[in-house]
Design a protein that fits this description.
By secondary structure, the chain is an alpha+beta fold. The protein is built from eight helices and six strands, in the order ααββαβααβαββαα.
Length: 274
């Protein structure tokens, strides 16, 4: 507390010069000046006032300052982005990786739009619109792009991973090379699609798809529609080469969903998939 406005020196203290002594007293050697009590009162009042201010200030500091207890902990500083993407799909630490696959959440049903004639295969609206534009452009070039699989729920992925893996006598690690564990598939996001060639259906979900006109057209043109191949050869996640699996990265949410996950160093990813 600043006490600059409170002086301990009384302002009305009489001067000790002879000019302030009344003339009658000056002429009489036996007369002594009377002691005034007013300066003493002012001094005492000033000291008491300063003391009261100090006491009040200390009390207010005691009341306002939060008390620390032995159980209290400082608030942690968050290192995560201030605003997560609306999909909440990105994985930003190796704890979110299972057998080389990142963690993703399901796209809400309200965000999905059909991309197949039977309306069963769906993608997020932004991705679906661009996919349909891509299909139309390919058709004008004599190439038939066929959707094989789009959005898949976590429940669908459980069947695909565990049941099919058991039928094929695959260990989890073997199964993960060709199919993501539930909760870790790009198909959950609504941005991923498996594509086939309508003129070569025998190559559906097969590495030989790379030999089709559909794949060659995608390789040359997919980026114009904001699609990219998720698992090229020798990818850092250790997932098998999937030339048929493409994902949309044409808006902020889709870009953050996949590229926040990809920001991990390859060493971090490989250490979790062994």
């Amino acid at each position: 507390m600043d006490n600059a406005g409170f002086s301990e020196k009384p302002q009305d203290t009489p001067s000790t010069s002879g000019e302030d002594i009344p003339e009658a007293l000056r002429d009489s050697p036996d007369a002594a000046p009377k002691l005034s009590i007013r300066p003493l009162i002012l001094i005492i009042g000033g000291v008491v006032g300063v003391a009261l201010i100090a006491v009040v200030s200390g009390f207010l500091f005691f009341v306002v300052t939060p008390k620390k207890t032995k159980d209290s902990q400082p608030s942690p500083v968050s290192s995560t982005p201030a605003t997560p993407s609306k999909a909440g799909n990105s994985a930003t630490s190796k704890e979110n990786i299972v057998l080389g696959h990142f963690s993703y959440t399901e796209a809400p049903e309200s965000e999905l739009q059909p991309i197949s004639n039977d309306r069963r295969i769906k993608m997020r609206k932004a991705a679906a619109q661009k996919y349909l534009e891509m299909v139309a452009a390919a058709r004008s070039a004599g190439v038939i792009l066929v959707p094989i699989s789009g959005f898949r729920s976590i429940k669908d992925q459980e069947q695909l991973f565990f049941a099919v893996g058991a039928q094929r006598n695959q260990t989890p690690a073997q199964r993960a090379a060709v199919s993501a564990p539930p909760g870790h598939s790009e198909h959950h996001t609504g941005y991923a699609v498996d594509i086939g060639d309508g003129a070569a259906r025998a190559t559906d979900v097969n590495p030989n798809f790379e030999k089709t006109k559909a794949y060659q057209w995608l390789e040359a043109n997919a980026a114009r529609f904001s699609f990219e191949m998720s698992f090229p050869k020798n990818n850092v996640q250790g997932v098998s080469y999937e030339p048929w699996h493409w994902r949309f990265v044409g808006d902020r949410d889709s870009l953050e969903t996949f590229y926040k996950a990809k920001n991990l160093k390859p060493a971090q990813i490989q250490s979790t998939s062994q």
